[in-house]
Amino acid sequence: MTAPAHARHTKRQVIIETAERLFAEHGYDGTSTARIAHEAGVPSGLVFYHFATKLDLLLAIVQERPAPSEVLRSAARGRTVRRRLRAIVATMATELEHDRAARIIVFREAQARPEIASRAAELFAEATETVAGVLGGAGDVTADPARVQAAAELVVSRVFLDTLALGQADTAANRHAAMIDLIVESLTGGLRARG
Questions:
Q1: At a CB cut-off of 8 Å and minimum separation 6, what does 193 contact?
Q2: DSSP H/E element including 37
Q3: Which residue from 20, 29, 56, 140 has the least number of CB within 10 angstroms?
Q4: CA 140 from centre of chain
């Protein structure tokens, strides 16, 4: 007799959450599947039932993250670039702080595992594209698409790096006030391109 679908899903999720915590604390190479199973309270064979290899488990942690696009789009509802930027910065910082273990894993493992680096690049590109779309849709934007794209890349890079390095989502808006002012001026015609 097999377990109901929801029970199998629950065990799989427990394995993923336990592995995420252990990989963040001890690294991928420093965490055995036996330890994951033990701390998840499941038989070792169940780990391999859901994930053919330990690498597959690592990839599931990274690939099954919620897409940043929906979160960022729903956060930025203001009509002006300034309101949208403030909402984007605050939302990104909060989400990144909430996902701290996954961030640590991606940052650490991307160096050695091309699959992780590739997924990180996809998430960065998706977040940048979403932010560019949100900023470009503000009512007061007068800048060309290339400048809007550059602003989006700056925002995503800066918030990610600051949150990774400082880990303080609650002060993100204050730390990024000067960047927000600069981007607002750049996208609304306050700064002119220099040749």
A1: 147
A2: helix 33-40
A3: 29
A4: 28
- Which residues, 6 or more positions from 59, have their beta carbon under 8 angstroms from its beta carbon? 115, 116, 119
* pTM (two decimals): 0.77
d(CA 65, CA 43): 25
Task: Report the interhelical angle of 114-136 vs 100-109 (nearest 10°).
Answer: 120
Of 161, 133, 153, 150, which is closest to residue 186 (Cα–Cα)? 150
Name, in order, each residue with C-beta under 8 angstroms of 69's C-beta and a sequence gap of 6 or more.
126, 127, 129, 130
Dihedral (Cα; 109, 114, 115, 118), 10-degree rounding: 100
pLDDT given at position 194: 44
- Name the helix (H) or strand (E) containing 31: none
Mean pLDDT calculated for residue range 23-36: 94
| pLDDT value of residue 64 | 80
Q: Answer positive or negative: Cα dihedral of 17, 19, 23, 25.
A: positive
Q: How far is CA 87 from CA 10, 83, 115, 155, in A?
A: 33, 6, 31, 12
pLDDT digits (tens, 9 = 90+) for 99-139: 778 888 888 888 889 988 998 888 889 999 999 999 999 99
